[in-house]
Recover the amino acids of this structure.
């Protein structure tokens, strides 16, 4: 969900996240309770498409859509044998 910036007449800034269809034009200020008007969003063109922008998106998305993993340790592969010589199987193991 997009993040909207609101500002009251006293200058207090408030950010709130709403679905695009449900975004209000004004909300109550969190500091003074006055009506805060929605401001025009900045386009964030300088970081769009960058790794930092991807991190911001995934962080915001994880708040309401946690990532589902298939195993308890997805990044670790099972150990592979270091030798294929059958005589090495007879050696003592630690
Ligand atoms: Zn205020």
């Amino acid at each position: 969900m997009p993040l909207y910036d609101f500002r009251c007449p006293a200058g207090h800034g408030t950010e709130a996240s709403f679905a695009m269809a449900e975004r209000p034009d004004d909300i109550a200020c969190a500091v003074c309770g006055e009506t805060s008007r929605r401001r025009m969003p900045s386009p964030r063109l300088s970081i769009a498409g960058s790794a930092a922008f991807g991190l911001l998106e995934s962080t915001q998305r994880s708040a309401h859509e946690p990532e589902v993993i298939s195993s308890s340790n997805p990044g670790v592969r099972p150990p592979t044998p270091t030798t294929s010589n059958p005589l090495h199987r007879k050696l003592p193991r630690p």
Observations:
- Helices lie at 51-62.
- Residues 8, 10, 12, 29, 31-32, 34 surround zinc ion (CB under 6 Å).
- The chain has a mean pLDDT of 83.
